[in-house]
non-specific protein-tyrosine kinase
Amino acid sequence: MDHVQEFPTADARPEGGRLKGLLPDPGYLWMIFRRHLWLFLGVAFLILAAVALRTVMMVPIYTSTASVVIEPRTNDVIEVQSVVPNLPKDSDVVDTEVRMITSPTLAMRVATDLSRQGYDVGPIRTEAELAHTAALLLRKVAVARSGLTYVIDITASSDRSDMAAAIANTFARQYVAAQTDAKVGATRSANVWLNRRMTELRAAAGAADAALQNYKIRNGLMSAQGATMAEQEVSSLNQQISLARADLAEKQGRFNAARAQLQRGGKGADVGAALGSGTVASLRAREAEASQQLAQLETRYGELYPEVKTAKSQLADIRAQIQQEIDRILSSLEADVRVASSRLASLQGSQSQAKGSLASNSAAQVGYLELERRAEASKQIYEAFLNRSKETAAQEGLQQPDARISALGAVPLLPDSPNIKLAILFGIVGALLGGLVAVALAEYFQRGVQTKADVERRLRVRYAGAVPSLGSTLGGLRETETPQDYIISHPFSSFAESLRSLRAFVALRSRARTLAITSPLPQEGKTTTSVCLARTAALAGTSTVLVDCDLRRRGSSEMLGIRPRVGLIEVLSGEARLDDALVIDEATGLHILGTPEAQPSAYDPLTPANLDKLLRQLRERFEFVVVDTAPILGVADARAVASSVDSVLVITRWRKTSINAAEAAIELLVDANANIAGLALTQVDIRRYASTGQSDVYGYHKKFKGYYQN
């Protein structure tokens, strides 16, 4: 690119900013955001409006939560084994109970209960309708275990607050009631089975007892107090024989002792039996008294005294009675010996007979024991079933569920959905993200030339400046003049200042006296820039001429409203003189070399020779020559003009002309050996922050309000 001025572009500098490590320049990001601020606000507003509309249109959903707690530990009112065992303490049991709460069977119980309470849950007339209603209820319920605890939360949702609380609480109540009903039902079924079995066992036990008793009767095995009659008889005879032998020995000893005393010459007074006799003792007491009395009488009166004789007679009588009593006692002892001996002989005879009966009973005892074992076994089984039946019957009214309601769901005052706070937060976050995404997409899909960095980094040409759109400089005022007239009526406006800046760039950078202004495509502001730049130079006192080389569109001529008798074509073809074709703009003193009408034929007067001759004449008469050419990509005439002038200023419409079109135009100019002074952006909206990049001079536009008179 021989005619393109090279300069360092600082590839690591995005639009003049420095990259710090891997992070982009925050100023660059802020510039992009501010550039698309209205897009961001528009997208954010649409998202907020959509969220608000959706929130308003949503049916309010209320939620209520009831909690039940699983209790593996139960309080035993009575110490009996339950038919249905309590839940173990394993954690997996709680997860199982969560699934049980969401079972269709429990949901059908809930639907029936809610209908009984007066809530409209749907038709439940048939089994199919009840199952369908239960399925709909399950969709409104979420059951979850609270962490690793034994607490289960039942959350119900409904478009009615009271309905949500009723569903949650009914599920909790019916779950607890279902556990109780299940235990009571199992206990009742067990009790029915036990009663039926007991009837059978009672009959079997009765039959076994009857068989045992009949066997005892047939075989004489009647017993009392745990022994048969024969055993009791033998045992009783043994005891009696022992007692009889002892009694006989005792009586025989007493009798032998008394007889031995008599044989030694005694009269039996010292016999033990006599000594122990009360009668003998009484008589001896009388004997002693009578002896004492006799002794007193003999001492006082002598032996011949009548009373002494009487006393002796009484004493002798008493002693005779004593002897008689002793004889009677000895005779009694002998009789007792004979009776005891006879009794012992009788008992020994009975013992022999009883032993014979006992021997016969022992042979029958074998069968008896077998029948007794069977009867005892039947009795024990029957008693076990009887006790279990009593326990089961007692449990029927004492069954406790393995869960209890820890908290009932309250009627919610505010809907859970839509959550206004969450909707606002979601709307704000969504609006921010949506707006930022829209900004990012807009920046990504933006293919037009819009910043100084695009010009210098991507197109590799000098950035000549930016010409704002007239409306963006008026601060909201309505446009009443065309740009080319506005610079005349407002020479100190910011719009006019942008043209002067562009004129200074051309004068200082390229020092060109002949400047061609072209653009890649039509409608990019090329002609307006040419006319305004030429008028600005003329107003500054510079001898300036504007040449309309767009022979097919007559852009400059139409804009200035001139239709000369002869024009550029006639001058180039030699049919008219230059002075006859020049028209003076009375408002600025600008000379204009226009065309009276569009090119009438295919004849091309813009040959290098004709152009060189014309430009030579113009240089001699004017200080500054502005040539308005046709778009470079579509018309070949522009290349011929560009190769003939001192410099070429390329015009692209801000954000509209694509990078590719601008590159193609620059390549054509390079191929034509044109000297490209730079590229300027037109119709820039200076109201948008950093319109042309971080180094955008219009970012400081408000600070110079006192300098401009718009």
About this structure: The first helix runs from residue 26 to 35. Residues 128 and 708 are 85 Å apart (CA to CA).
